[in-house]
Amino acid sequence: MSAPQSTSASDLAAEKLLAATTAVGWVRDGMRVGLGTGSTAAPFITLLGQRVREGGLRIEATATSRASEELARQVGIPLLEPRRGLRFDLTVDGADELDAQLRLIKGGGGALLREKIIATASDYLLIVADSTKAVGQLGRFPLPLEVVPFALPWVIDAVANLGGAPVLRMNKQNPLEPAQSDQGNLLVDCHFQQISDPDSLAAQLIVIPGIVEHGLFLGLARAAVVAQGGQAQVWRPGQAPAPAEAFTALP
Ligand SMILES: O=C(CO)[C@H](O)[C@H](O)COP(=O)(O)O
Question: What are 45's strand-pairing partners?
Fold first, then answer.
């Protein structure tokens, strides 16, 4: 599935809404749900809140960012604080890129650390995505890293040695200041262009002192809903995409 060049902002918003609507239909009473971050996770949270308020759906949730937590509060989703033993039946989150094996690049919204924590504490990670996110090979989207501020210069050296062209992310509201994660760390976007061996790169990145987390999510996603135009497809690792309407429950 590839996005036509002419995909407009409103077409993309419609695809994100379709993916989110599909995922919301698979949430069941009693589930503990991880709430993702970004412009595809946001409509999922809003629609989930609607089911809680108007449909009597009983769920509890934990959000992967302050922004998603604030939205969840606004729409009436009961929230759980982190605690020992807490696991999630389902986490629904977006992605910046996904390939046919459901390997992901995440962190475009700067929430990669909490996103990976919640994904790892989940029995089922479901990705919701518009058609521009599906790629043959990861790496066109710059790979985000969350970095301890003190370590920044050495992390930049190390990533450059791996061929990643690192760029410190700046604050969109104040471009003279670096962007900060919810944890107060820095974000470095690494332009690899092509990541031919994501497992090897992930292993090399995670041992660099000062990198708290990287945005490669490998072996975590169980399925993805990828919307293109008015069609939503279910992607699962190593399986042919299938129309989402064929599934009345989690695929
Ligand atoms: O990883 C993320 C945030 O850290 C998002 O899931 C990713 O950036 C996709 O966002 P969107 O749905 O807005 O395109």
Answer: none
> Of the residues 69, 115, 146, 213, which is catalytic?
115
On whether both 108 and 171 belong to a single domain, the answer is: no
Q: Which domain holds residue 111?
A: 9-133+218-244
Distance 224 CA to ligand 1 centre (A): 14
pTM for the full model? 0.96
CA distance 56 to 136: 41
Number of domains the chain contains: 2
Task: Examine the residue annotation and report whether 115 is marked as an active-site residue of this protein.
Answer: yes
The ipTM estimated for the assembled molecules is 0.98
Q: pLDDT digits over 179-215, tens only?
A: 999 999 999 999 999 999 999 999 999 999 999 999 9
Q: Does 105 share its domain with 167?
A: no
- Ligand 1 binding pocket, CB closer than 6 Å: 36-40, 93-96, 106-112, 115
Name every residue whose Cβ is closer than 8 Å to that of residue 187 and which is 6 or more positions away in sequence. Answer: 107, 110, 144, 145, 146, 147, 168, 169, 178, 179, 180, 181
Residue located nearest, by CA, to atom 3 of ligand 1:
109
